[in-house]
């Protein structure tokens, strides 16, 4: 059954267009609790995982598409609003020349800090003052790929729900839990953590391939410029290092996180035949 759709929006001055565009700014994401996700695949995955869709902006005339129709049905269930519009308005909202044919505004989800449960199989990644949204998105994507439970943002971090971080996560933002807390709250969490708390740091002497990643694992990664604070290093049960053979003094944060997560996976889920 096809549902009636509102008239196409054609003006950049339309209030809905302005509201969606404002979700590029952290201030408005905080005020509304919403964020933008782009593309039919990613929006469909989010809806399938039960994320609440508030607005669906889509290219006028494509509401009947096989991939768009179920999104409109989910939107109607969630009490959201369908917004057919011109390509130039989609482009304006996304900030891209070649926008996807759908843009969804979803409700953010944050895990309460006292709801972080250390179960034996789980791996959490704690990021100390991560600043680069591309790094954070890539880390969410790798966390999802390696089966990690979630990401804890310590201190003043970039927003995982920014357009850039969501884009870099390629949809993984919908499949990892997210929490934020102060360094002190994290230190309290780490002090009662029943498994290993492994920090990666350049001053460490232990090779990351020889560490004990016994679960529940907390993997702690440092800020792009300053690395881990001394307090966080002290809270770790082990500090590990990735060998640096050339002249560069460190790896990119997302690369270092990816290497460590895949080492954890290699040790906890060895390939068959090894
Ligand atoms: N100048 C910073 C420092 O002294 O730590 C470099 C930070 S590095 C770009 C960002 C984070 O990635 C580090 O804090 C650490 O968690 C991880 N990292 C990068 N390269 C690493 C390496 N070779 N060994 C261990 N951790 C590394």
Shape, principal axes of CA atoms: elongated
| Total domain count | 2
Name given to the CATH homologous superfamily of the largest domain: SPOUT methyltransferase, trefoil knot domain
Alpha plus pi helix count: 10
Q: Please state the oligomeric state of the protein chains shown.
A: single chain
Compounds present?
A: S-adenosylmethionine
Strand content: 15-25%
CATH architecture classification of the largest domain: 3-Layer(aba) Sandwich
Fold and architecture overview:
This protein is of the alpha/beta class and 274 residues long. The protein folds into two domains: 15-107, Ribosomal protein L30/S12 (60s Ribosomal Protein L30, Chain: A, 2-Layer Sandwich); 113-268, 3-Layer(aba) Sandwich (Alpha/beta knot). The chain contains ten helices and eleven strands. The strands form two sheets. Strands 7-6-5-10-8-11-9 form a seven-stranded parallel β-sheet, sandwiched between helices. Helix 4 (69-78) links the parallel strand 2 (53-59) and strand 3 (81-85). The mean pLDDT is 96. The structure holds S-adenosylmethionine. S-adenosylmethionine binds at residues 200-202, 221-222, 224, 227-228, 241-242, 244, 250-251, 253, 256.
């Amino acid at each position: 059954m096809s549902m009636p759709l509102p008239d196409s929006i054609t003006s950049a001055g339309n209030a809905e267009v302005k509201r969606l565009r404002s979700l590029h700014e952290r201030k408005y994401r905080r005020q509304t609790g919403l964020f933008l996700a782009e593309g039919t695949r990613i929006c469909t995955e989010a809806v399938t995982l039960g994320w609440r869709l508030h607005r669906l902006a889509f290219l006028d005339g494509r509401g009947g598409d096989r991939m768009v129709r179920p999104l409109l049905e989910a939107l109607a269930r969630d009490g959201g609003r369908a917004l057919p519009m011109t390509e130039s308005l989609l482009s304006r909202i996304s900030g891209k020349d070649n926008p996807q044919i759908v843009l969804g505004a979803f409700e953010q989800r944050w895990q309460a800090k006292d709801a972080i449960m250390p179960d034996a199989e789980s791996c959490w990644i704690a990021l100390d003052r991560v600043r680069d949204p591309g790094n954070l998105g890539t880390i969410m994507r790798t966390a999802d790929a390696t089966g990690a439970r979630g990401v804890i943002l310590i201190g003043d971090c970039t927003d995982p729900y920014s357009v850039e971080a969501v884009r870099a996560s390629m949809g993984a933002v919908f499949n990892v839990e997210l929490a934020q807390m102060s360094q002190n709250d994290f230190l309290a969490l780490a002090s009662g953590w029943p498994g290993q708390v492994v920090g990666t740091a350049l001053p460490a002497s232990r090779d990351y391939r020889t560490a004990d990643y016994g679960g529940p694992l907390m993997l702690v990664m440092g800020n792009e410029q300053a690395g881990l604070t001394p307090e966080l290093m002290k809270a770790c049960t082990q500090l590990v290092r990735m060998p640096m053979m050339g002249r560069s003094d460190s790896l990119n944060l997302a690369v270092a996180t990816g290497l460590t997560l895949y080492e954890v996976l290699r040790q906890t889920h060895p390939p068959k035949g090894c």
